[in-house]
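Lab notebook, design round three. We kept the backbone fixed and only want residue identities now. Task for the bench partner: fill in a sequence for the structure below.
Input C-alpha cells:
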C-alpha cells in the first residue's frame, strides 16, 4: 500500500514507518506520479499548500491516470460544512480535520479496510445486469467495468444489499463511516449525485429513488 502525503513533516513520515512498516509513505509535491503505483493507493491532501490550493491538488489527483482510482482524503483546517462539500465536489472521497498524526492516519486506513472487507457469504451482489464483486471492489454493467470511487462503491453495495428500504442521510453517513459530529447531511446529496453520474456515464439506468424529506431507496426490480 502506498500513501501519498502533501505534508512534508519528517516526524509524520518517520512515525508511519514505525507504526505501519508495510505502508510506503511518499511525500507529494507539485509533480504527480507518472505511472500507476502497485497496490492500494491512499492520498492525504492538506487544505493549504505552498503553490496551489488543496482543492486543485485533489482535482489533479482525480484526473491523473496514475492516481485517479486512489482513495483521496482532504485534511481540513476546521470542520466547516462548506469546506467539506467543496472537498467532495473537487473529487475527494473523504475528509478529516488536521493536524495529521501517524496514529490518526493509520486508524483512518484501518477502519476503512475493516469496513470494506467482504464476508465470505456475501462477496457478490447483483441488481439486474448491474453486478458488484466486493472482494475485487469492482462494479460491472452487462459485463463491462463501471469505474466507481470508494464512497460510490460502498453506497451502491449498501443499497443493493438492502433493497426497498429508505435510508436517511444520517444513516448513509454512518454507513460510509464518517465522523458524525458537525457533519452536514447535504454532503450525502453530493455522494449520491456522483454515484448517479458515474452510472449514467456507462449507460446504467438510475437505480435510486429520492424520497422527499426522508432519503433514498433502491427499489427491487419487477419479477
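Proposed sequence:
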Amino acid at each position: 500500500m502506498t500513501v501519498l502525503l502533501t505534508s512534508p513533516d519528517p516526524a509524520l513520515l518517520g512515525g508511519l514507518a514505525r507504526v505501519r512498516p508495510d505502508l510506503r509513505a511518499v511525500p507529494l509535491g507539485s509533480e504527480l506520479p507518472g505511472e500507476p503505483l502497485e497496490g492500494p493507493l491512499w492520498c492525504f491532501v492538506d487544505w493549504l499548500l505552498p503553490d496551489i490550493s488543496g482543492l486543485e491538488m485533489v482535482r489533479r489527483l482525480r484526473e491523473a491516470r496514475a492516481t485517479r482510482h486512489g482513495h483521496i482524503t482532504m485534511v481540513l483546517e476546521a470542520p466547516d460544512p462548506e469546506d467539506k462539500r467543496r472537498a467532495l465536489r473537487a473529487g475527494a472521497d473523504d475528509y478529516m480535520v488536521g493536524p495529521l498524526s501517524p496514529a490518526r492516519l493509520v486508524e483512518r486506513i484501518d477502519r476503512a479496510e475493516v469496513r470494506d472487507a467482504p464476508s465470505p457469504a456475501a462477496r457478490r451482489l447483483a441488481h439486474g445486469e448491474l453486478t458488484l464483486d466486493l472482494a475485487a471492489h469492482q462494479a460491472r454493467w452487462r459485463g463491462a467495468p463501471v469505474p466507481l470511487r470508494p464512497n460510490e462503491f460502498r453506497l451502491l453495495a449498501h443499497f443493493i444489499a438492502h433493497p426497498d428500504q429508505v435510508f436517511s442521510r444520517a444513516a448513509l453517513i454512518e454507513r460510509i463511516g464518517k465522523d458524525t459530529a458537525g457533519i452536514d447531511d447535504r454532503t450525502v446529496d453530493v455522494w449520491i449525485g456522483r454515484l448517479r453520474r458515474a452510472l449514467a456515464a456507462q449507460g446504467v439506468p438510475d437505480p435510486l429513488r429520492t424520497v422527499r424529506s426522508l432519503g433514498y431507496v433502491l427499489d427491487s426490480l419487477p419479477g
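Keep this in mind before ordering anything: Residues 4 and 156 are 27 Å apart (CA to CA).
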